[in-house]
Amino acid sequence: MGIFSFFSKEKKETLDKGLQKTKENVFSKLTRAVVGKSKVDDEVLDNLEEALITSDVGVDTTLRIIERIQQRVARDKYVGTDELNRVLRDEICALLAENSGGDVEGFSIEGRQGPYVIMVVGVNGVGKTTTIGKLAYQFKEAGKKVYLGAADTFRAAAVEQLVVWGERVGVPVIKQNMGADPASVAYDTLASAKANGADVVIIDTAGRLHNKINLMNELTKIKNVMKKVVPDAPHEVLLVLDGSTGQNAFEQAKQFTKATQVTSLAITKLDGTAKGGVVIGISDQFKIPVKYIGLGEGMTDLQLFNREEFVDSLFGGI
C-alpha cells in the first residue's frame, strides 16, 4: 500500500471544485452531441468524437474510446442516449486502469534501507517546484524525514523558490552556486540525506526543453551520479505537466519520455482550466501512470490520482 492512498470527503470536494471548468466544458459538448436523439447511432458517435477531441482528450485516445463505445453498443444491441454518460464513464475508467497497470497508489517507500529518491523533471512554469514542495509537505506530514536538492542551477529563481518551499515545509534544501554542475548537487543531496537518515529525497532538475541530446545527457549524468550514493536511485522519475496547456502537454511528455525513463506523471493547474481531458489522453498515449494531479495553490491541493473519483467528478451529474 503506497503512501497518501486514502481518499477523503474533503479531497473529493476539492476534486469536484477543481474539475468544474472541465466538467462544464464537457457537459455542454456532450449535451449538443445527443440533442434530439433517443439512441446512440453513428451521428451521436460522430458528435461525441468531436466533443472529446475538442476537450483535449486527443485524437488517438478519442478514437479508442469511440471504438470501445461502438463495441458496447453492438454488444448491448440498444443503448439510449440517457445511458451514454454511464457507458462513457465505464469505458474511460477501464482505459485508465489499463494504462496504469491497475490501481495507482502513492510512492511505496515503506520498509526501505536508505532514502527513497524521486527525480522530478519538466519544463519551466509547469508547477514543478511547487509540486515538489507539496510532495515534501505530504511526506513530512506522514512522519517522513525529507531532503530537497536544488539541481536546477541554471535559474536563480528556481533555487530561491525551492528554498522558500523548504522553509515553509520545514525541510532542508541542499544547494550550490548558480551554474554549478546539477549532478554535483544531486550527489551532495543524497550523501547528506543518507548520512542523516532521511526517508525521502526529492531532486529538482533544470526545466529546459533545449536540445534533446543535451537534456538526455544531463539527466543521465544526474542519475548515474546518484547511483554512486544510492545504487538503485532514482526510484521514481516524476514528469510534471501543466494541464492548462492542453495539447502542448502532450508534446512535453513526448520530449521528456524520449530523454529519460519517466515512471510517473503529475498533471498540475487543473483547477484553472477547462482542459482536464488531457489527463485521459496523456495516460493513454504514453502508458505512464498519472500519480498526482494539482487542483489549487494550497499545500494539500496536490492529490493522488484516483481514476474512479476523477471520472466521477468529470461526468457526475451530466
From TrEMBL:
Topology within the bilayer: Peripheral membrane protein
E.C. numbers: 3.6.5.4
Binding site for GTP: 122-129, 204-208, 268-271
One Gene Ontology MF term: signal recognition particle binding
Name under which the protein is recorded: Signal recognition particle receptor FtsY
Organism: Candidatus Aphodosoma intestinipullorum
Protein family according to the UniProt entry: Belongs to the GTP-binding SRP family. FtsY subfamily.
Reactions it catalyzes: GTP + H2O = GDP + phosphate + H(+)
SRP54-type proteins GTP-binding domain location: 289-302
Cell compartment(s), UniProt: Cell membrane; Cytoplasm
Gene: ftsY
Domain of life: Bacteria
